[in-house]
Amino acid sequence: MGEGKILVVGGGISGVTAAVEAAEMEYDVILVEKEPYLGGRVNQLRYYFPKLCPPTCGLEINYRRIKENPRIEFYTMATVKNIEGSPGNYKVTVEIAPRYVNENCTCCGECEKVCQGEREDTFNFGLGKTKAIYLPHEHAFPARYVLDKAALAEGDLERILEACKYNAIEPDMQPQTLTFEVGAIIWATGWKPYDATKLTNLKYGQPGFENVITNMQ
Ligand code: SF4
Ligand code: SF4
Fold first, then answer.
1. How far is the CA of 45 from the centre of ligand 1 (A)?
2. Where are the domains of the chain?
3. Nearest to 19 by CA among 45, 44, 39, 35
4. Which atom of ligand 1 is nearest to the CA of 58?
5. Among the four residues 27, 73, 115, 214, which has the most C-beta atoms within 10 Å?
6. What pLDDT sits at residue 1?
7. Per residue in 165-211, pLDDT tens?
8. How far apart are CA 202 and CA 91, in angstroms?
């Protein structure tokens, strides 16, 4: 029985806040996030409104609360596949996609230097490219590289394995299926940015107005 245990789905600022607040009220918490890092879209913002602080500040405080609280177990690259049961007694199946980089990663960046294959930088809305082995962003938590195997160029795998002195790259890592029993579920899977092209008076996205950008960009 998972009574007293809470599953939080979504590791953005809402999910992270829910997880730390519940854990600090002495609930055991499992936090799952589909991206390879916590913090969600807040990581992508330039400033917080209204104080115009950098978003990394508030996130770092929450990451520290997570690290210091043994009641929180968190999983990235994790997707909920099935939920059974009813309030007080849920059984949840979660699939963890392989990151192909294990906890030995020190973020030294040596693999990235020798990797030639590239992928779209999804964190930056596809405005640029990252290497096939990459740190999702500068303040990523957990601070650990991710390998996009499909984006590797010929010979990259050998080169990155050779470059990594910490045995952190595991090209054979497999997906994992985990089952949790929890009493309650908090669904905090986030939001989609507003389509700024609807604000026609600002001409966002129109030719000649490339300098009109959103806060997310
Ligand atoms: S501590 Fe961080 S979030 Fe708070 S006002 Fe300063 S910069 Fe902003
Ligand atoms: S995977 Fe290895 S080489 Fe790449 S950043 Fe991590 S520790 Fe460094």
1. 15
2. 5-97+175-202, 110-163
3. 39
4. 3
5. 115
6. 52
7. 999 999 999 999 999 999 999 999 988 888 999 999 999 989 999 88
8. 48
